[in-house]
Specification:
Layout: E1 2-6, H1 10-21, E2 25-29, H2 32-41, E3 43-46, E4 54-56, E5 59-61, E6 72-75, H3 82-92, E7 98-101, H4 131-135, E8 141-154, E9 157-170, H5 173-189, E10 193-196, H6 200-221, H7 225-230, H8 232-251, H9 260-268, H10 276-282, H11 289-303, H12 308-323
Parallel strand pairs: 1-2, 1-6, 2-5, 3-9, 6-7, 7-8, 9-10
Antiparallel strand pairs: 3-4, 8-9
Helix pairs in contact: 6-8, 6-10, 6-11, 6-12, 8-12, 11-12
């Protein structure tokens, strides 16, 4: 398939560079210094900090509508950028093309066609006004849970740091299974460890289960994960947040068969690292609070599942974000 990667940061840049290296037709959407750098020299990827950089030429533009048609658009921007790019996505992606959501948190399409009490619930915290839900219902979407990380030391240059696993799955298997299968083959050819999930919502929720507390807590404390988990009081608080998130997950049929302590212990084994939300905060970029935390509270409130610790974490984080120019309430 022909691919366009919308957002060429640490994750989107890895996907674009490795697909292009494997011989796929790849273009990208970028802005400002990143756009200029990639136009000049291509996109660069280091497989680790000490490895040589490999440059891959790709066609790049500021808008999707300025690029040749792609069969599949991988959206790898921060969720905070979605409102600003919604019109460009809608204009540049005809109905027969697929959109892949390679982002953190609960996506706008999560409850489109979902069963139970949350069937077709529109997530106002993620998609206020419903612009994305109208343009990109679940039948057009391939969801993804991304288990890899990296950073961008310079515009258009990415260093891969850990992880190689991507889980994908059609949000509506009846309409996008063929594209999901082709995407799996191309990502495997590019060297990723790829799985196709029969229930991608469960995989997205599983990743969220680990991010819901530690990402926001790292912004409040400005500490890496090992320092947060090394403080007994902080660890107890984030464990209570994780437990509440799992209770909300069980209420929608996506409970995780892993205790909060087990999940935090598996995270602790990764050593010292800064979650993506902390990296954004330190760089002065908007934090993805709504997709990772406000959405979970919205779901719990709709179902009547209490979440006092999540509520406290959200309240403190959004005040901190507002005070430091990192968050604006919608």
């Amino acid at each position: 398939m022909r691919y366009c990667i919308y957002g060429l940061g640490a994750i989107g840049g890895q996907i674009a560079a490795r697909l292009a290296r494997a011989g796929a037709t790849v273009s990208g959407v970028a802005r400002n210094d990143t756009l200029a750098a990639i136009r000049e020299r291509g996109i660069g990827l280091r497989e680790n900090r000490g490895a040589p950089i490999a440059w891959q030429p790709i066609e790049v533009a500021e808008r999707l509508t300025d690029l040749p048609p792609a069969d599949c658009v991988v959206v790898a921007v921060k969720t905070t950028a979605l409102p600003a790019i919604a019109d460009d996505l809608a204009a540049g992606l005809p109905a027969h093309r697929s959109i892949v959501t390679a982002m953190n948190g609960v996506p706008w399409w999560f409850f489109d066609g979902f069963g139970g009490r949350m069937r077709d619930h529109r997530l106002h915290s993620v998609d206020p006004g419903g612009r994305l839900a109208s343009a990109f219902p679940a039948r057009r979407v391939i969801g993804a849970a991304i288990h890899l990380s990296g950073f961008t030391p310079a515009p258009g240059e990415i260093v891969r740091t850990s992880g190689n696993r991507i889980v994908i799955g059609a949000a509506d298997p009846a309409s996008r299974a063929a594209h999901a299968g082709a995407l799996r083959s191309d990502l495997r050819e590019a060297g990723f460890d790829v799985e196709v999930s029969p229930d991608i919502r469960r995989d997205i929720w599983f990743k969220l289960y680990g991010n819901v507390s530690l990402n926001p807590a790292s912004v409040l404390t400005r500490m890496p994960v090992d320092r947060i988990l090394g403080d007994p009081l902080a660890r107890d608080f984030v464990a209570r947040c994780v437990t509440e998130a799992n209770a909300i997950g069980r209420a929608i049929g996506l409970g995780i068969d892993q205790s909060a302590d087990e999940r935090l212990e598996s995270t602790a084994r990764l050593g010292s690292f800064k979650p993506s939300m902390l990296q954004d905060a330190e760089a002065g970029r908007p934090i993805e609070l709504d997709a990772l935390l406000t959405s979970v509270r919205e779901i719990g409130a709709a179902l009547g599942v209490p979440s006092p610790n999540i509520d406290a974490l959200l309240g403190l984080c959004r005040l901190h974000g507002e005070a430091n120019g990192l968050y604006h309430r919608r």
